[in-house]
What we know:
The protein is an alpha/beta fold. The chain is built from 9 helices and 15 strands.
Amino acid sequence: MQTHNGRSGNLYCPEMMTIKTLIEESHDTVTFELEFQDEALRKNFSFKPGNFVFVGAFGYGESALTIASGATKKNLMDVTFRKIGRVTGGLGCLNQGDSVGFRGPYGNRFPMEEYKGKNLIFIAGGIGLPAVTSVLFDCLEDRENYGDITVLYGARSTKDIIYRHHIAEWEARSDINMVKTVDPWGTADDWDGKVGLLPVVLEEINPSSENTFVIMCGPPIMIKFAMQSLDKLGFKEDQVYLTVENKMKCGLGKCGRCNIGDIYICKEGPVYTATRMKQMYPDF
Ligand SMILES: Cc1cc2nc3c(=O)[nH]c(=O)nc-3n(C[C@H](O)[C@H](O)[C@H](O)COP(=O)(O)OP(=O)(O)OC[C@H]3O[C@@H](n4cnc5c(N)ncnc54)[C@H](O)[C@@H]3O)c2cc1C
Ligand code: FES
């Protein structure tokens, strides 16, 4: 069951969710574990890895956020957001037990069926990590159906690292190659990861491009240099999947905030191959 038709028939009418758990991931980033207040939605809501939703703080507005938990997680759904402005700042003032508005799921999805039997490299910079974790969580539910899994996560500094609890679990597993790095000016004495810009570390770990897909999200500058590194490593553009976070308002193909020409990212995207990204953005 999806919610985007709105129970009242109004496409913009949000459902209500409760913040069951609130995790302060870092100085500016928070995770909500959300639960539908409506029992039928709690049981039957479904989504696909890569879908996004709108989460609203009453009196502030609503923000597009990627669902960060796996599609197989029952009853509860995670979203992680960086407090950068009006709405995310408003969401950041809420507490466990408070209500939020919810619309979705929207957008396309990662092609999980194509990834079966392949090696996967997850590349994420900063707040890009939650945008790829729903794919990772679903792969881990079904681990034997995938080849090698590498997670390369980069943050500006140790204080910007999020998902420390998940990263510790992934590091403890022998079937995930977890590599974390911080920028050279962002390290600290107790840091046990690599120090270096993510594209440099990507070349250092030198993954094979054979039978491999890359799933990537991060700031545009990271994507630009990571693409150059992947090219050097022999990856073709159609082996690389990205999810883009253009500004959005409605999620419904109606407001014209997200479009590039006649392409509405909220409807066609936000998941694209690098090949398609190049067609859409000449500077990509
Ligand atoms: C499909 C999709 C998925 C997303 N998933 C996540 C997620 O999982 N976690 C998360 O933290 N964020 C995510 N975002 C970005 C998030 O929607 C915005 O950060 C948020 O809506 C900003 O709202 P605000 O009112 O807090 O900021 P505003 O007050 O509107 O803006 C504050 C500052 O941030 C800039 N800004 C606002 N929106 C964006 C944006 N989309 N991209 C770049 N800069 C922006 C503004 O230009 C301004 O400088 C996603 C966006 C999209 C479209
Ligand atoms: S967000 Fe309104 S048209 Fe895409």
